[in-house]
């Protein structure tokens, strides 16, 4: 079942921590929120010690007063369960709840997320606090929903406590039944790693040198994901039982969790924390970096989990901890731009992080809408503007769906395997980056598509074109699915390093690309990494002769009725096939024996007629185009990410939904400005 | 009370380790020292096992013979307490004395400084050995003074043994009385870090991810400083009691110790170990790096502790350990230059490290005056020259005071807070560097001024100009002090990120710059880091239009009768105030919404008439000017740090104190040469 | 006694892991090996759990079937003892067998080489499995020899388990007898490290800051080497006893083992694992990097252990682990080129690693001859060609000796001391690199010469020229040996930092270069590192005036009848001697007060008439020349490492041994091609 947020109009909210502030401030704060047109306030998620100051002793006074006060001003409250930060009394009394590094050294109280998901004590104590809260708030009219924990797997996404080792042993036993099966799956015959008793089985530990068994590592990621989901489910079950009228979500999106499965199984919809200004501080020396616009891709992934989703933390000021991540302030207009970025991609609720900048602790530099001084400022004014605009458009746009005819395929197995496998993971990152840019700069909306065990050809057929850049792990069943998709009219593009691994991460005793070979009509004759200190070969395509064939080269050999559309030069395999197309049934497949770059992706994208926006607009590269559709109506978002005015041409008559004016002809978008057209 | 070294003339000394060398060498060594004009010899500080070969068994024979022999040649002995290096028997028997890393792993015997200050066992065993030595040597006519331990907090300046955790808990209890107070001071409401029992309180521990509570961190530094001072006091008390006729000092200067307070409370004066050739190996890619000349600033800080001080280790050869810190040999003249650098800034005693290069251990490449081979060499000859010169000038110069009309303000709270706070600490480092260079290259002597809880306006008024580049933590009391200073005629300069924090490191709920706002007449309208990948804005000042406004921009808003003297360009806050001056009473204040660089500091410095040397000299940038004054007489030092001859113009008649010649008109200083004029 | 491999002709082999593959594949695999002309197959070395699935329960079935099957196809089997990878049951039951990091944290099951050499349990269990295997296979006609363990000290070459600490204490006691001796040797008087009870003695431990006693460190390396050899000897003794007709070797070459002594004492010959394509991924920003050709030097070192040796792993595909070391595929011809590189330098047996690429585990990207898919490929074809050529030349070449008139001196003491001593170790690395290149690019064969305690002048006299770039540790005995060598007609070249240390790593109380001073006729007047941020001086030599005197400068002072042949410029020691030659008896010595670079080494090399190949060939730099000689016949190898055709001139009539054709005049070597001439 599709898990999507259901609202009656677009909603704005803020994150607010009543426990941080003098109670004198609350009334004014809530009143100002109301005046700003804010309807949701999130609270509670770091307040375990407030709720349970000592074990078994519960206290709801502070939050009861805050919830009541918020409700007086018409605000609805989203309550967070406080398990991301266990109390000091808890970790001191039950040190087994702590997370532990791979070398056996415990993390301790003093920051956040220092617990593990498998400690019996932690699960028990979490159940108790969540039960208490659910019971207490289930009938409170201010409360509408719950956030489970906060940012699962943020900060740290590996776990090696004794409880984790024990749970993993049990998990492995359930999965493999026999040690023979486990030994086969992990290929333990290599380097004599064979297990002869279950008590020898652990999560990966400190090895000489730091290179554990790769198949074991892959299962470790699966186990971590299962552990996190199981821990969230523990809470979700309690909330469902005791607060059946409230919705349940959690805010992501971090590594080593199958967020899709988690959402399907236990949540009502998925929520995301969006901080596009990381794009100003994360190193990105690639060609034409996307910076904050890269977050559009993150939102596409979020959308693949919940077509209509919530933003639980929308960046509203400069960000950073005392010790790291130092970000600049948003430029005038960027706060608004990023809000529309979220909405354009499917958000029906946007909550700003946070109402007021914290004055204490590690996050005093994650600036909220309000500054420490609580005086009016530019960011509050921007929220005011957004809020008034959202009033205009909120009813129409809410519930509408983002439109895309192409998708990049994601798959947790390949993501997790590629994290440590240097022979496909880094290529996946590079190729994804190239494709995202090609779609953005060509104004073609794109989805993320999560390939999982129950994916059907009907799911695939929602797209004209699918791109699966480096599908290292491909099962026979998946290969069949892709063939069916192509025969029924789909088009699919693969890059090198595809199809050579099975689900354990072991390699097939087959020619590359394994089970995909039939579909794409090639085998790989020869392959090599492009090493440092070597000349990079190139390929020709559509008249271009100098497209770098960087990182990895697979020399293709035609096995079927495939057509060579590109060959290598500048290597000993000069003139050999590099890019091959094969028509099959109503569709086609492409296989490129390399890692995609922006040049090649941009050329390939034009092989297909995708979202033919050219009839409606002429757009410079700096503008993102997004379309949401409901009841046959298109709502078009044009977002200017650049610090310069951008001129566009509107070729048909549109209505500017934010101003009510008609729009046609040459239009200038100011820096960071936004158009929403219908 | 000012703690200054009192000597009757300038003195030279050497560090000598009799236990390292065959006893056959001692007589010749001491004789040659005497012949060189050396009067002090330091010994004993790494010899615990010699003094106490097994627990409770003491032996003074070796050092008695050495001290007696030195005294035969007229040398006075400074004795070091040997606690920097506990014996192997001690750490093996009492492992609780060892220092421990934050993750809980102990340091072990094998280098130095592996103990902690709070172990009861270590304090007891230290008391015993120091008592024994003090009693034994109190009436020895050769001994004149004591060095406590060696280089406190060198190598490592954090401590996490169980004894430290326990002592910190006690320290916190004494400071805060109640957990409520502690929770408030550390802002533990953030991320649910609230402590509900004192047994939950520790020094910072391994957290997820490595970012402990910043207010906790700040207190940890204060605690470390208190621990070190308390440990030194333990020894000082014993020495005062048993050797009342000897002076007491220790040799610094390392992080996480309030050296000013330590000196005031327990020492007779402060001593420093000066190794300017670190300036050749420490990475410094800044504009016009100062290299060895940067040590002049270090000496200014030393002078702020003791106006007349001792150098206990003056670099006399190439330096480095076997494994790191590899330095070149001093060039001909540099040993002499650095000696005068020390003297020019206030040293009345200079001890060379060391008499002869060690032939064993980690420091075989910290070359002494003599080489391994003990044959005459260039460095010994340079010491000979220095010594003969010092005979000439020693009586006049001793006790004279360095003259400066400007000072940079230092403050331990801001230094320690800024160590981990990336939003002001790195700016302080950059701005300090810019100002030091501006003073050096403009030949304006500058002091360091330590702002502490008992600083009065009288203290401040010793200076025409004070510079406090990024005064993040500013209390109301301090702001008042600065206002008084300005009203009474002082001038003070602040940069961005000033006044926004209280003494806990929490931010005020005020507009920037907090309590300073009244004085400087501005508030901060808007601010941002200058992120990577962004254009750096610039400011105009005194006709220059291209001064970079790097790192951080605060857009100023006039609140009072302040005058805008510089505005921003190249940003969305184009034309807004960047640098503002405000006259108040007899003085003025400047507030710059940015991080200082050399261009700006050099222009600002000329706003004031400081040490008007131009009537006396024309000097190229390469020359440092320093003046010591006594009884109305000026002693002028001109130091050539460059490897080229430098031409200067002497505009008045001076006497070259080193040669006795009159000096006037054009004079050439040879590479690394020195003039001392009266 | 010289330990050399004795074969009747050149042999090829492969590494094969029958336990990895379905038994169905064996027959075809062995048959194809046979058809390829392969005669040796190595197996068994990672199969402990196959042989001993539970403690004390032995099973030889699988390998018996494999050995028998291999033998059916005429293959001889080399059996590896499986101790590099202990079974999971073993480490789980006996955790004391695990290796431990210096900070006390254990390594665990999950990769390989996680055991320590000194655990009594591990030694006992190793003895049992080796005894079982030796007894079982001693009379098996297929088995010809044994490989002990696999790659001793690979991955990790330091060991800090409790067993190691205890064994080290015992080792130190045996070496030093008394603590006084130990304290003297380690210079523990420095920093009060004196040991007063043997229980205080450990291997180096975690120190503040990471800089343990250097003399202690040097002994630690010696101890590690002794431990490794003792562990190998334990196995060798068992194998000799139970399988007296089989030869014994092990495959190296890794750090912290005296491979020469090990081979002399316990092996029949030495074997090496050669992976030249590391040269494509290891950072090398030096001038004219050698890349894969650098492995020729490694082979020279191997040859210094065993003049005729085996390659137990010859790279046959692209290499790398899942997580690191990613290498490109060998280019067409490189597999063959590298095989001849091994043979040219003295290999009489070459085993390819591996028969087929692993489909599971950490090494799925260490490609073998065959790909996963087991279909014919280019690499198998290359082996076919090599094999057919080796049939032609194998009988003639086998047992012949590589011819070199020059050698670089290696010495374990200096290598181990220089590992952490930044004042000579890094210079040794740089100078070695320069000399190797100078020999390669000038087509002069060169040997490695291991200087050890029993080296005689007769050993030295095998060479016209010896180069010992930075002989930091030089004993009086060694200095005498070099003098004798020169007097009897030898020529020897030293660089700076020579002769200043004794065998403990302490410095002599002598002028540099210590005991070498008499021989080279100089002392060092002054010396300095060339620091960063300083101008690099230069020297003149043979008309060149701009040879950089990088890294370190020693200013020489003539003490005897030496001749200055080069002086410094660009420093304060302008014009002072930099390079001095002294004739003595029939020979000469050179002393250069610096670190060698390619320019200088290339000029110095021409001071001597070495291997006058010019009468026979004109060769471009890209070609390596190597000559093996037997019974008065020269076999000349010309190897083209470049990716371009190279033209050479053959000036005398030769026979191409691979084709049987006569060769004379202009000849073109294709990329990666090889000529073997007689």
From TrEMBL, chains A, B, C:
<dbReference type="Pfam" id="PF08532">
    <property type="entry name" value="Glyco_hydro_42M"/>
</dbReference>
<protein>
    <recommendedName>
        <fullName>Beta-galactosidase</fullName>
        <ecNumber>3.2.1.23</ecNumber>
    </recommendedName>
</protein>
<feature type="binding site">
    <location>
        <position position="150"/>
    </location>
    <ligand>
        <name>substrate</name>
    </ligand>
</feature>
<keyword id="KW-0479">Metal-binding</keyword>
<dbReference type="GO" id="GO:0006012">
    <property type="term" value="P:galactose metabolic process"/>
</dbReference>
<dbReference type="InterPro" id="IPR003476">
    <property type="entry name" value="Glyco_hydro_42"/>
</dbReference>
<dbReference type="InterPro" id="IPR013529">
    <property type="entry name" value="Glyco_hydro_42_N"/>
</dbReference>
<dbReference type="InterPro" id="IPR013739">
    <property type="entry name" value="Beta_galactosidase_C"/>
</dbReference>
<feature type="domain" description="Beta-galactosidase C-terminal">
    <location>
        <begin position="623"/>
        <end position="678"/>
    </location>
</feature>
<dbReference type="Pfam" id="PF08533">
    <property type="entry name" value="Glyco_hydro_42C"/>
</dbReference>
<feature type="domain" description="Glycoside hydrolase family 42 N-terminal">
    <location>
        <begin position="15"/>
        <end position="393"/>
    </location>
</feature>
<comment type="similarity">
    <text>Belongs to the glycosyl hydrolase 42 family.</text>
</comment>
<dbReference type="GO" id="GO:0009341">
    <property type="term" value="C:beta-galactosidase complex"/>
</dbReference>
<dbReference type="InterPro" id="IPR013738">
    <property type="entry name" value="Beta_galactosidase_Trimer"/>
</dbReference>
<dbReference type="InterPro" id="IPR017853">
    <property type="entry name" value="GH"/>
</dbReference>
<dbReference type="GO" id="GO:0004565">
    <property type="term" value="F:beta-galactosidase activity"/>
</dbReference>
<dbReference type="InterPro" id="IPR013780">
    <property type="entry name" value="Glyco_hydro_b"/>
</dbReference>
<feature type="domain" description="Beta-galactosidase trimerisation">
    <location>
        <begin position="404"/>
        <end position="607"/>
    </location>
</feature>
<keyword id="KW-0378">Hydrolase</keyword>
<feature type="binding site">
    <location>
        <position position="112"/>
    </location>
    <ligand>
        <name>substrate</name>
    </ligand>
</feature>
<dbReference type="InterPro" id="IPR029062">
    <property type="entry name" value="Class_I_gatase-like"/>
</dbReference>
<feature type="active site" description="Nucleophile">
    <location>
        <position position="313"/>
    </location>
</feature>
<dbReference type="Pfam" id="PF02449">
    <property type="entry name" value="Glyco_hydro_42"/>
</dbReference>
<keyword id="KW-0326">Glycosidase</keyword>
<dbReference type="GO" id="GO:0046872">
    <property type="term" value="F:metal ion binding"/>
</dbReference>
<keyword id="KW-0862">Zinc</keyword>
<feature type="active site" description="Proton donor">
    <location>
        <position position="151"/>
    </location>
</feature>
<feature type="binding site">
    <location>
        <position position="321"/>
    </location>
    <ligand>
        <name>substrate</name>
    </ligand>
</feature>
């Amino acid at each position: 079942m599709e898990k999507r947020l259901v609202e009656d109009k677009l909603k704005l909210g803020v994150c607010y921590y009543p426990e941080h502030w003098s109670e004198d401030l609350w009334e004014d704060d809530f009143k100002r929120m109301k005046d700003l047109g804010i309807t949701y306030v999130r609270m509670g998620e770091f307040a375990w010690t407030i709720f349970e100051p000592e074990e078994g002793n519960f206290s709801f006074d502070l939050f009861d007063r805050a919830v009541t006060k918020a409700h007086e001003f018409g605000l609805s409250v989203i309550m967070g369960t406080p398990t991301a930060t266990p109390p000091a009394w808890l970790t001191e009394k039950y040190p087994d709840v702590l997370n532990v590094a791979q070398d056996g050294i415990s993390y301790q109280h003093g920051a956040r997320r220092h617990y593990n998901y498998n400690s019996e004590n932690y699960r028990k104590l979490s159940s108790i606090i969540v039960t208490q809260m659910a019971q207490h708030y289930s009938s409170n009219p201010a409360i509408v929903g719950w956030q489970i924990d906060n940012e699962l797997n943020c900060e740290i996404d590996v776990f090696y406590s004794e409880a984790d080792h024990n749970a993993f042993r049990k998990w492995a036993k359930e999965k493999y039944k026999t040690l023979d099966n486990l030994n086969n799956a992990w290929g333990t015959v290599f380097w004599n790693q064979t297990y002869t008793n279950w008590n020898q089985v652990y999560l990966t530990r400190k090895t000489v040198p730091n290179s554990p068994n790769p198949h074991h590592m892959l299962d470790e990621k699966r186990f971590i994901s299962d552990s996190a989901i199981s821990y969230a489910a523990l809470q979700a079950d309690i909330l469902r039982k005791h607060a059946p009228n409230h919705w349940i979500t959690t805010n992501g999106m971090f590594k080593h969790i199958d967020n899709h499965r988690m959402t399907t199984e236990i949540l009502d919809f998925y929520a995301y924390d969006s901080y596009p200004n990381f794009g100003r501080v994360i190193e990105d020396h690639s060609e034409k970096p996307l910076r904050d616009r890269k977050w559009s891709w993150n939102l596409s992934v979020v959308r693949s989990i919940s077509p209509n989703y919530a933003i639980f933390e929308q960046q509203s000021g400069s960000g950073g901890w005392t010790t790291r991540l130092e970000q600049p302030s948003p430029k005038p207009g960027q706060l608004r731009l990023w809000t529309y970025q979220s909405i354009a991609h499917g958000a029906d609720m946007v909550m700003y992080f946070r109402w007021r900048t914290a004055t204490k602790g590690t996050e005093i530099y994650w600036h909220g809408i309000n500054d420490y001084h609580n005086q009016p400022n530019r960011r509050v004014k921007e929220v005011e503007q957004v809020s008034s605009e959202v009033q205009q458009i909120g009813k129409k746009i809410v519930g509408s769906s983002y439109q895309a005819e192409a998708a990049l395929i994601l798959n947790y197995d390949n993501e997790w395997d590629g994290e440590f496998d240097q022979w496909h993971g880094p290529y996946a990152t590079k190729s994804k980056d190239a494709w995202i840019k090609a779609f953005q700069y060509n104004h073609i909306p794109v989805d993320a598509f999560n390939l999982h065990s129950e994916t059907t050809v009907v799911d695939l057929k929602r797209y004209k074109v699918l791109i699966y850049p480096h599908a290292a792990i491909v099962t026979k069943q998946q290969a069949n699915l892709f063939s069916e998709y192509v025969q029924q009219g789909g088009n699919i593009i693969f890059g090198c390093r595809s199809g050579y691994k099975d689900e354990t991460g072991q390699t097939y005793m087959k020619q590359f690309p394994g089970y995909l070979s039939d579909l794409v009509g090639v085998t790989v004759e020869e392959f090599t990494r492009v090493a440092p200190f070597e000349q990079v070969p190139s390929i020709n395509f559509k008249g271009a002769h100098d497209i770098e064939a960087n990182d990895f080269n697979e020399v293709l050999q035609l096995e079927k009725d495939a057509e060579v559309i590109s060959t290598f030069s500048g290597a000993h395999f000069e003139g050999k096939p590099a890019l091959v197309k094969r028509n099959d049934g109503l569709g086609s497949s492409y296989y490129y024996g390399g890692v995609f770059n922006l040049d090649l992706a941009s050329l390939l994208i034009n092989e297909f007629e995708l979202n033919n926006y050219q009839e409606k607009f002429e757009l410079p590269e700096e503008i993102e185009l997004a379309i949401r559709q409901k009841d046959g109506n298109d709502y078009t978002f044009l977002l200017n990410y650049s610090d310069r005015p951008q001129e566009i041409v509107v070729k048909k008559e549109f209505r500017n939904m934010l101003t009510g004016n008609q729009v046609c002809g040459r239009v200038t978008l100011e820096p960071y400005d936004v158009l929403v057209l219908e």
